Amino acid sequence: MLDGCVPWPGALAERYRAEGYWAEQTLDVLLREGAEQHADRTALVAADGTRFTWAELDAWADRIAAGLVAAGLAPQDRVLVQLPNVPEFVALFFGLMRAQVLPVLALPAHRESEIVPLCELSGAVAYFVAEDDGAGYDYRDLARTVTKAVPSVRQVFVAGDPAEFAPLPEADPIDLPAADPFEPALFLLSGGTTGTPKLIPRTHSDYLYNARASAEVSGFSSDTVYLVALPAAHNFALASPGLLGAMSTGGTVVLAPDPSADTAFELIERDRVTVTAVVPPIALLWMDVVDFMDADLSTLELLQVGGAKFNPEPASRVREALGCDLQQVFGMAEGLLNFTRLDDTDELKTTTQGAPLCPADELLVVDEEGEPVGPGESGELLTRGPYTLRGYYRAAEHNARAFTADGYYRSGDVVRQLPSGHLIVEGRRKDQINRGGEKIPAEELENHLLAHPAVHDAAVVGMPDEVMGERTCAFIVVKGEKAPTLREVTAFLRERGVAAYKLPDRLEVLEEFPQTKVGKVSKVALVRLLTGENG
């Protein structure tokens, strides 16, 4: 196992292999087998309509793999990948798998304050970016900052005009040794509850199961046309079941540059999309505008909604508004996935967040003392299983808190489990805001706020919001008499490289923060100030 990664205990690893959860295959088999079985069929469709057959995509990945080797990248090298939903993302992903180079998958919205720490933690030796985000943001400027700040990043490769950097590497295909299926293949990012980024190592075998089993429970087949509406680097859109799940069944993947109704509806009609996945705010938006748009969504069979809790009222409107079935998905990049089943009752589909994917998933619902709660009672969800990590990368101190002694991951999610096995998510114990599926670590944003010259103290909390689930409110205590405005604070945070989705939606100035009996800031009391609740 790669140094810094926590392996599964030997007995469990043997069990997962013996019971068929872990295959002796690597992730690149999804493309290789697809090219063998469906060579001339369409595998991938770009937003502009450019189509790639399975054979073309397979050959492209081979050229990139050879180019990576020619560029001096070696097996188990870590590289930071930050690409939007473009064909280069898919070809590069499989090229990296074949060259045994390990991608750290960052989201397009990440900026300096996320990318620099990720490069430092992973020891990234290269950075892959797009020319821009299509809306004026130039990733090459970010790359210039990163290379100055992180000496280990020796190379930058650009999809598009590389400027002073290098284009995506390609070379004549070469024979390459096969990777170990039980070694890490890639790193996903944790939503996190602190300012320190955490990397989630996913092995070929566990992530292959993740994609294949998710595709099976979602009814994917070779007729599936899957629209990647969310960022492809996100676990939901990548392998839950996502584009990898669609590829595992020989389906077709369509890439959307953004999840807006204008963009998504046009692609659904143009490419006869059958399934897509979104977060609740996007689902709400689509349902609100569909009657005002001239779009043929008749091919859409299934809308998957996850990333944050989808409340029963809007969930019950999906079929009438969009003419398709609903599947709720609740999970985490760390592993555990829950799906409502296609044959579940409407009540289960609209009121629960699904049941565990795998028969070997082990779940505990515990109280604050770590003791199991009674049937149907609320508690924190703990889990372990064949596709749930045993520890974050190079994070021994955090792992001691995030995992029990016997390997259960403390999710921080407060849930109730029904007799059917389905979960109802009731909230979070961890100190983070879930803003429409985007996880915002409160401590990280507080640290940035404390750097403002006028801020004495800062506390960040989530505000309940019907559309986003939560929005972000920053409470501050100022040093002098003049408090900064929200506009001034957001401008300051942008200058520090904070991603746009992490910027506070609201700013409140207090003379002092309410405290708990042990002298800590009472965030419960701060939320009550916002909601007008007493007690």
TrEMBL record:
Keyword field: Ligase
The keyword Lipid metabolism is assigned to this record: no
Database matches in InterPro entries: AMP-bd_C (IPR025110), AMP-bd_C_sf (IPR045851), AMP-binding_CS (IPR020845), AMP-dep_synth/lig_dom (IPR000873), ATP-dep_AMP-bd_enzyme (IPR050237)
Residue ranges annotated for the AMP-binding enzyme C-terminal domain, each copy included: 444-520
Domain (AMP-dependent synthetase/ligase): residue spans on this chain: 32-393
Pfam families: AMP-binding, AMP-binding_C
Gene3D superfamilies the UniProt entry points to: 3.30.300.30, 3.40.50.980, Luciferase, Domain 3 (2.30.38.10)
One GO molecular-function entry: ligase activity
Keyword Ligase annotated: yes
Superkingdom field: Bacteria
SUPFAM superfamilies registered for this protein in UniProt: Acetyl-CoA synthetase-like
Name of this chain's protein: 2,3-dihydroxybenzoate-AMP ligase
Protein's organism: Lentzea pudingi
Lineage: Bacteria, Bacillati, Actinomycetota, Actinomycetes, Pseudonocardiales
Gene that produces this protein: dhbE
